[in-house]
Design brief:
By secondary structure, the protein is an alpha/beta fold. It folds into two domains: 243 residues, Dihydrodipicolinate Reductase, domain 2 (2-Layer Sandwich), CATH 3.30.360.10; 127 residues, Rossmann fold. 33% of the residues lie in helices and 20% in strands. It has an eleven-stranded mixed β-sheet. A six-stranded parallel β-sheet has the order 5-4-3-6-7-8, with helices on both faces. A hairpin with a 2-residue loop joins strand 13 and strand 14.
Length: 465
């Protein structure tokens, strides 16, 4: 069969004209490089009745980042924040103004009639409870990933979203990225053939990257509401390290997989239109950051995705390593039978090579069994190849797509969220999507802890049986 994308012109033309949904616009930069067009944020004036009033629950690192990003969307106003550490409440008013009300108890925020939406940016063990409480209080909810700490909690969140019809979006911003929209477009076009493997990693090589966050000098039982932080977690005496570095402990967090695999799985599910794997296997350990934490700092996992009407069967290999001396960073590789897509934080490169047919010379004299045959059989093969030899397929040039300088997929994610709040339109990453991304990541932990392969039902979103 001739290679329909064999030439540079037909290759680039196929990308431009592929019959797929929601193509991402791009402009040529030259040298087979294109810049993706960002989504436009409406700059039209927003009337007083159109304003969305938000409150952020949890003013840690991501709480400030999410709040600052949300406020870039026209018509969004911050009215309240909650946190268990007094210093973060003080800092919130220093940054966002004295008019912002502060609370230690998030339930006081949910009682306010003027709060339209809440951003939940708290430790993982609080995600489900706060999400359920907020939806039942009639609030729109933006919940940071992973959506839940346990698979069973995810079932509860999905149930409550369906019951309340609340606008609920998980904060894993790859679901709104124009870069991964382009990956989805390319995979859907068939240019890389049938997807068979996805490789991805999210590595780090620094103390802060490994969650050794700074602890304020005034951290004590008076400035930290320790019991409120613990919630349903096991009771312990006050421990500032556990409070400010909660990700390092199973009692409050979901380890590296819950923090970073969820991003990778979100991108994979978004680009392939998959609902998830049915088998997960993991290995890893605590190899470097032996600072008192009880979670691992390196994990490797395999996820097997069965064939569905949306995609062929494929296998995913994920890695997160907090002691990557080469520099860390994130990388994706979507591999198909005709090509591959390599993705970094800011660009993707499409390479199409296809499956090769050996040349006559390679068959007869290369690394092949023919040269071990008798002279008569070698002659017979040579004569047969004269009649059957086909011209080798032409090789295509690589094509690169870049996001614009300063592009922020987190902002796109918030734009989508607030559009849903205003218009009651479907969110990009609802509770069902969130459960299907969180579930396999959490089961990667289960496999690591139990030392065995774990099964998952991506349709029912639970462990089978």
């Amino acid at each position: 069969m001739p290679d329909q994308f064999g030439s540079r012109r037909s290759f680039l033309g196929a990308i431009a004209t592929a019959p797929v949904l929601g193509q991402v616009a791009a402009r040529a930069l030259g040298d087979n490089t294109f810049e993706l067009s960002p989504r436009k944020v409406s700059a039209e004036p927003v009337g007083p009745n159109d304003r969305i009033r938000i409150a952020t629950i949890g003013m840690g690192i991501i709480g400030f980042i999410d709040t600052e990003t949300a406020l870039k969307v026209p018509g969004v106003e911050l009215v309240a924040v909650a946190d268990a550490y007094e210093g973060r409440l003080t800092r919130s008013q220093e940054v966002f103004g004295k008019q912002v009300k502060t609370y230690r108890d998030y339930r006081e925020i949910l009682e306010r009639k003027d709060v339209d939406a809440v951003l939940i940016c708290v430790p993982d063990h609080w995600h489900a409870q706060m999400s359920v409480d907020a939806m039942r209080a009639g609030k729109a909810v933006y919940c940071e990933k992973p959506m839940v700490r346990t698979v069973d909690e995810g079932q509860d969140v999905v149930k409550v979203q369906r019951e309340t019809s609340a606008v609920f979006q998980v904060g894993s911003q790859y679901a709104s990225s124009i870069l991964y929209d382009k990956v989805k477009e390319i995979i859907g076009s068939g240019i890389i053939g049938n997807l068979n493997t996805v490789e991805a990693r999210y590595n780090r090589n620094s103390d802060i990257g490994a969650w050794q966050y700074s602890i304020p000098l005034d951290a004590n039982p008076e400035t930290v509401d320790w019991d409120r932080f613990l919630g349903n977690a096991p009771k312990r005496p006050f421990d500032a390290t556990r409070f400010f570095r909660w990700r390092n402990y199973w009692d409050y967090g979901t380890a590296v997989a819950g923090d970073l695999y969820v991003h990778l799985l979100t991108a994979i599910h978004h680009t392939t239109r998959s609902i998830g794997p049915n088998q997960i296997a993991s290995m890893g350990g605590l190899r470097y950051w032996k600072d008192g934490r009880d979670v691992y700092d390196m994990i490797l996992s395999l996820f097997d995705y069965p064939q569905t009407p949306e995609h062929p069967a494929f296998t995913v290999a994920l890695q997160s390593n907090f002691a990557d001396g080469s520099g860390g960073g994130a990388l994706f590789r979507f591999v198909g039978s005709e090509g591959a897509i390599n993705v970094s934080f800011t660009e993707l490169t499409l390479s199409k090579r296809g499956m090769e047919t050996a040349s006559r010379e390679a068959v007869l004299a290369g690394y092949n069994s023919v040269r071990t045959f008798s002279a008569a059989q070698q002659k017979a093969f040579a004569e047969q190849l004269v009649n059957e030899e086909k011209a080798p397929a032409a090789r295509s040039e690589d094509v690169t797509y870049k996001v614009p300088s300063g592009y922020d997929e987190r902002l796109d994610h918030f734009v989508a969220f607030f559009q849903s709040v205003r218009n009651r339109s479907k969110v990009y990453e609802d509770a069902v999507f969130g459960q299907r991304a969180a579930g396999p990541a959490l089961l990667a932990n289960t496999s690591y802890l139990e030392g065995q392969t774990v099964n998952w039902d991506p349709v029912k979103m639970r462990i089978p049986g």
